Amino acid sequence: YDETRRQLNRLVDELQALLGAQYQATTEALKPDMIQRFLKSEQAVVRGVGARIIYDDAINGVTTPSPVVRQLLRGMIGDSDAKVRLEVARTIRATNDPEALAALLQQLVIEPQADVRVAIVQAVQSIADAGAIPILIERLNDPSDRVVEAVADALGAIGQTLRERDRATYE
């Protein structure tokens, strides 16, 4: 079993590398269609690669996701695969999509995986919307210390952002 699991992990790693290389080798005109195909794939690993590519492009300042891609990502917040949910939350954090807030908060309440809950909280933090505060406060009772720590950080950062916005408004 362990050897089979290691082989599968190596296969997934190689597939991710191949899909990433294929995307990078594609002309700019064809990249939007390719990324949409990745995000709509029946295979979780391909959907995860699609989200990771968007994340990489966002943090490297290469491109901004199109409205269609942003909508696809929002729909993937509740994906059936935890790894995809994790990649999507990280990608939404990197692209700072305020329209994803409601879906993020909805998933946060039902998300079974602690690492995904942490990523969702971090995405919510990047949006910095006061409407998230009540749900974040509820997560201070999360069974995972990592989630509670992320929530505390998020509440502090959101509070600071809101104070700065208020200050700028009245100056």
Structure characterization notes:
With 171 residues, this protein is an all-alpha fold. It is 75% helix and 0% strand. It has helices at residues 2-25, 31-39, 44-59, 67-75, 82-95, 101-110, 114-127, 133-138, 145-170. Helix 2 packs across helix 3, helix 2 (31-39) packs parallel to helix 4 and helix 6 (101-110) runs antiparallel to helix 7. The radius of gyration is 17 Å and the shape is globular. The termini are far apart.
Label the overall shape.
Answer: globular
Ends apart, CA distance between termini: 64 Å
Q: How many strand segments? A: 0
Radius of gyration: 17 Å
What kind of sheet is the major sheet?
A: none
Strand content: under 5%
Helix residue percentage: over 70%
Residue-averaged pLDDT, rounded? 94
- Strand and helix order: HHHHHHHHH
Q: Poorly predicted ranges (pLDDT <50, ≥5 residues)? A: none
User: In terms of structural class, how would the helical and strand content be classed?
Assistant: mainly alpha
Count the DSSP helices.
9
